[in-house]
Amino acid sequence: MASWFGVMLGDGQLRGQRDEHGLELAEKLIGTEGVSEIRAWIQQASIQDRKGEICASFEVCAWMIQADGRLAEDERDLFEDMLAQSDLEDSLQEALCAALEDLPSLADLEERLLHPVLRELTFGMCWEIARADGEI
């Protein structure tokens, strides 16, 4: 799953087993039609809109990580791995990592995470993060 953002934000090329596994997980969660829909959206969306939705998705994941009141190393590692695969610029990645310690407001997330398929994919990412430390 960590590699899926990289595949979505990049040229869509699968570069090895890790990307193929990420695609399989995404297809299980949102189906092949969902994968096609999100890829089409990414290609037509402005860079600003795409980054905004991806950042909102990571903010939701930050809340999931903190849901049990502790930040496990395995959860942080997976979050940072997902960020690294996202191709977001370093300043955004740093801000999102900081969100693990200082959770962002949820007040406007529903206005920033608009794409229904990306919402579903975010749920899958949250589930993977929740399982990362072996505890849910």
Report on this model:
The structure is a single chain. The protein is globular. Helix 3 runs antiparallel to helix 4. It has helices at 4-9, 17-44, 47-65, 73-85, 90-98, 109-112, 116-131. The two termini are 17 Å apart. The chain is built from 7 helices and no strands. It is mainly alpha-helical and 136 residues long.
Topology:
Blueprint: H1 4-9, H2 17-44, H3 47-65, H4 73-85, H5 90-98, H6 109-112, H7 116-131
Helix pairs in contact: 2-7, 3-4, 3-7
Quick rundown:
The chain has seven helices and no strands. By secondary structure, it is an all-alpha fold.
Entry keywords:
mainly alpha; globular
Strand-pairing-aware structural class? mainly alpha
Based on CA atoms alone, the radius of gyration comes out at 14 Å
End-to-end Cα distance, whole Å, is 17 Å
Helix share bin: 55-70%
Give the tally of β-strands: 0
Number of helices: 7
The main β sheet shows up as: none
Poorly predicted runs of 5 or more residues: none
Mean pLDDT: 83
Strand content: under 5%
Q: Name the overall outline.
A: globular
